[in-house]
Amino acid sequence: MARTDAIVLGAGIVGTSIALHLAKHGLAVALVDRRGPGEETSYGNAGIIEGSTLLPHAFPRGLSALLRIALKRATEADYHVGFLPRIAPWLMAYRSQSAPARRMAFADAMRPLFARALPEHEALIAEAGAGRYLRKTGWLKVYRGDASFADTVPERELAMRLGLPHQVLDLDGARELEPALAPTFRHGIFWSEAASITNPLALTKAYAARFTALSGLVLKGDARSLHRNGAQWRIETPEGPIDAAVAVLALGPWTPDVLGAFGLRVPLAVKRGYHRHFRSRGNSGLTRPVVDADIGYCVAPMEQGLRLTTGAEFAARDAPPTPAQLDRLLPAARALFPLGEPVEAVPWMGSRPCFADSRPVIGPAPGQPGLWLAFGHAHWGLTLGPATGRLVAELIAGADPFCDPRPYRADRF
Ligand SMILES: Cc1cc2nc3c(=O)[nH]c(=O)nc-3n(C[C@H](O)[C@H](O)[C@H](O)COP(=O)(O)OP(=O)(O)OC[C@H]3O[C@@H](n4cnc5c(N)ncnc54)[C@H](O)[C@@H]3O)c2cc1C
Fold it and tell me: Is 47 within 8 Å of 382 (Cβ atoms)?
C-alpha cells in the first residue's frame, strides 16, 4: 500500500470531516470504520446545524422535574434503574457544571467553534456538491409554559450581547412561520441563523466522496486493532496493515474502547436518544425543525419523513433499546403537529457522546505522541464536525489554528 501520513479512525461526521481537511492539507489519509461513513450516530440526529448555541443543556432544576424523571413519567429524560450507580458520579459532575457561571464558561469556550459551524459546513457542502441537503431556514423552539420561556432569559440576553439574531414570537407569530402547528404553546423563539440538513447520512457520505476524490482511502477495519509499530501507528484492515505517523481517534461514543488499551481513561458518558420517522397528514408540513421545549423532543422534516427525536436516556451504551420516552411524548407531539403513520417498524437508537462539561475533546492524546483525539461532541456533533475537522487538521499540519484549542484538551480532566 502507498505511503499513508495519517489514519483517521471513525467515519462519522467528525472523523470524515477531519479526513477531508487533512487531505486538503496534502496529507495521504486512510479513513477507517467498521461500517460505511455516517452510518451510526451521525445518521440519526435531528439534522440541526446549531451555530447559535450558547449554553449547554442544564441538569433539571426543581423538585417536580426531578420527581417526574425519577418516577419515569418525564418525556425529556429517562434512565435504566440498574445503571444509576454507574452514572451517578457523572450526573453529579454534570449537575455542578449546570451552575450559571460554569454555563457561561461553556459559552466562552465553545463560541469560536459554534461561530464557525455553518461557514465550515457551507465550504464543504460547496466542494462536495451537497447543496441539496442544506436548508437555511433557521429553527423554531416553542414553549408551552411561561416558566420555561422565562428560563431562556440568560440565553437571550447573551445572544443580544453577542449580536446573534433571534426573534421572540407569540403563538400567532410562530404559527405564521409554521402554520401546521396547533395552538398548544404560548411562546416561540426563532433562531434565524441556524440551518438544517435534510439527510445527515447522505451529507456525511457526500463529504466522504469528496475525500475519496482527493485521493483519500475509505477502508473497513476495527479501530481496536490500533497499536504501535516502532515510531508509527498501525491499524489492521482486510487490505493489510496500514502504518502512519499520525492516528486520530474519532470514534464518537466508542472512543473509550480504544483509549483504554493505551492506559487513557476519560469520563465520557452517553446520552442515548431515539428517532422515528412519521408521514405527515394531508398537506401539512414543516419548513424547519421545531423543538417542543417543555416536552423535550424535536420534529425535523427529513427526506425520509418527519423525524421525531428524543432527549436523553441514561443507560449503558450497548444495553438493548428501550424507547419508552418516544411512546410517552407521542401524544403531545401529535397534539402539536398532525403526524401520520410511522415510516419504520421500530425506532432508531443512537448515543450522544458527552462529557459533564459538555465540551468535546479535541487535541493530542496525553503521553501518546502522534495520537490525536476528536470526540465527545454531545448534542452538537453534526453542528461541529467540519469546524472540528478544520481545527484538528490545522493542529496536525502545524498551521495556525483558527481558534485557541486549549479549552478542548484531554488533559483538562
Ligand atoms: C437523537 C439525537 C439527535 C441529535 N441531534 C443533533 C442535531 O440536531 N445537531 C447536532 O449537531 N447533533 C445532533 N446529535 C448529536 C450528533 O449526532 C453526534 O454528536 C454526532 O453524530 C457524533 O459524531 P461522531 O462522528 O463523533 O460519532 P459517530 O457518528 O458515532 O461516528 C463514530 C464512528 O466510529 C465507528 N466505530 C466505532 N467503533 C469502531 C471500531 N471498533 N472500529 C471501527 N470503527 C468504529 C462507528 O461505526 C461510527 O461510524 C444528535 C444525536 C442524537 C442521538
Answer: yes
Given this model, what pLDDT does residue 1 score?
58
Mutate to test the pocket of ligand 1, among 13, 45, 288 (most ligand atoms within 8 A of CB): 45
Phi, psi torsion values for 33, nearest 5 degrees: -150, 155
Cβ(354)–Cβ(376) under 8 Å?
yes
Give the strand pairing for 269-280 and 339-342. Answer: antiparallel
101 vs 97: CA distance, rounded Å: 9
Cell numbers found for residue 314:
441514561
**Cβ 53 under 6 angstroms from ligand 1:** no
Report which ligand 1 atom has the smallest distance to the Cα of 300. Answer: 8
Cα 44 to middle of ligand 1, angstroms: 8
Q: Determine if the pTM surpasses 0.85.
A: yes
Angle at 181 between CA 142 and CA 293, to 5 degrees: 20
Chain position carrying cell 479501530 = 223
- Block residue for cell numbers 405527515: 280
Low-confidence ranges of the chain (pLDDT < 50): none
Three-class secondary structure of residue 133 per DSSP:
helix
Give the number of the atom of ligand 1 that is nearest the alpha carbon of residue 13: 25
Residues 6 or more apart from 56 whose CB is under 8 A from it?
97, 98, 103, 106, 357, 358, 378
To the nearest 5 percent, what fractions of the chain are helix, strand and coil?
40, 25, 35
DSSP letter for each residue of 78-93? EE-GGGHHHHHHHHHH
Residue 382 CB less than 6 A away from ligand 1: yes
pLDDT > 90: percent of the chain: 95
